[in-house]
Amino acid sequence: MCQHQPPCPSADSADRESARLVAHHPEQGWSLLCNGVVLFEDTGELLPDGQAIAPHRPVGAGLMTAA
Known about the structure:
By secondary structure, the protein is an all-beta fold.
């Protein structure tokens, strides 16, 4: 899929999320990368082969504590 140089990481590589954006729809909560990966705002992913990757937010992200 990737036509630019240097080519983006493939959808099955560990750094697949660093590929260039092809489409960005923040109002719908998703973005498409040039390697075919769909990223969701909850950090979940959908790979081109249909495999779903569960959200992987850092532990404790978004938690607030009251003093």
